[in-house]
Amino acid sequence: MRPNALGKRRAFRTCAVAATFVLIMPLAARAQEPSPSASDTALARTLGSEGVQLADAGNCAAAIEKLERAEKLYHAPTILGRLGECQVSVGKMVLGTENLQRVVRESLPKSAPKAFVDAQARAQKVLDAALPKLAKLKIHVEAPPGVTPTVTQDGEPVSSATLDLDRPADPGVHKIEASAPGFRTARSEATLAEGASGSVSLRLEPDPNAAPAAGAPPGSPAAPGAYPNAGTPPPADAPGGAPAYTGTTAPVGAEASGSSNVPAYLLLGAGAAGVAVGSIFGAKVLSKKSDLDEVCREKARCPSSAQGDIDSMKSAALLSTVGFAVGGVALGAGVIMLLVSKPSSSSNADAKSAPAQATLTPILGPTSIGLSGSF
User: Fold this and answer.
1) 50 and 7 in one domain?
2) Which of 9, 19, 140, 168 would disulfide-bridge 201, Cβ 3.0–4.6 Å?
3) What is the domain extent for residue 154?
4) Same domain (yes/no): 13, 82
5) Cα 54–57–62 angle (5° rounding)?
6) Residue 91 lies in a domain
């Protein structure tokens, strides 16, 4: 073996050992985080060494997985920096530059090993060369008011906060989709060169085959009137026309004719209660009057001992009168409401069946009590 080849192999092994060694050196900036277990540290050391060897050999596609696993188990600038380099190398410019930014911006303690300092300097050099190659992509989605579309770029979700803005993107071909319930999925592609800017505009169109939204009338489109300024929808038999609205509208007055009779029944119940109260106190009046007739039968004036019975009879008569009066009014109003609420076949029938008058009158006499009325 030639001396030069032997020297290169020794240098390669030395770099790998150095990268593995710095994995176990904790940083002051991460001192507050929970320390990994001994098993995790040992595994991170192995993965990091293998990843660095693959990266040095130019096999970044295989090195990325090992470096990612090592970084998750134990952070070290040497590993994260090489990971960012490999990501930039395979075309993942946005993710790679972000990892390189993390390495460059990390605050190292004064006692940090030289390998960490060299890793930052190396990351800065790669970052400076990669940033100008980043592309930008602006995504615009036209959707009806109140509709929030779901947007993806190459299958990854895109935040609505980044729409209509120049988003950093990897050079190459990108597939953009926008969707929402009741609408067709809008799709587009954009091809970006290194350092170039591009834009994509998508429009959500109602899907006539989508299921109607909850509460929509049967047969109505999934999203009627999606774009207020688009004009009225074409008839169903027009070319490309949307399904016609087949819902029905209740005729004017239908609600009134089918109104509830509960108030009428409540009035009838109140009237019956009033008549019952009037009847009870009326019976008491008749009883008191019978007793007073026996006491006052042979005298022009009743004795003073009967004054209490006389007062009681007057009170009962007043309550009986009030009960019959209130009950009569309530019964009359209830009967009228029931008659008015009955449906009729024609206006003439209404005129003939409409009651001209309905009255109830209580009758209270010296020896009789009752209720008379006309309908």
Assistant:
1) yes
2) 140
3) 135-203
4) yes
5) 35
6) yes
Say whether both 115 and 143 belong to one domain.
no
The total number of residues shown for the chain amounts to 375
Residue 189: CATH number of its domain: 2.60.40
Same domain, 95 and 10: yes
In a domain, 165, yes or no: yes
* Strand pairing report for 150-153 and 172-179: antiparallel
Nearest-angstrom CA–CA distance, 207 and 184: 5
Residue pair 126/60 in contact (Cβ under 8 Å)? The answer is no
pLDDT tens for the chain, residues 1 to 375: 444 544 545 444 444 444 444 443 444 334 445 678 899 989 999 999 999 999 999 999 999 999 999 999 999 999 999 999 999 999 999 999 999 999 999 999 999 999 999 999 999 999 999 999 999 999 999 999 999 999 999 999 999 999 999 999 999 999 999 999 999 999 999 999 999 999 999 999 999 988 765 545 444 444 444 555 554 444 444 444 444 444 444 444 444 444 568 887 887 888 788 788 878 877 877 887 777 676 676 555 676 666 677 777 788 788 878 878 887 888 888 788 878 776 544 444 444 444 445 454 555 454 444 545 554
Residue written as token pair 């990091």 = 48
Whether residue 210 is contained in a domain is answered as no
Whether 72 and 52 map to the same domain: the answer is yes
- 242 domain residue, yes or no: no
The domain tally of the chain equals: 3
Lookup result for tokens 């930014």: 101
Q: Are residues 140 and 83 in the same domain?
A: no
CA–CA separation, 199 vs 164, rounded Å?
Answer: 9
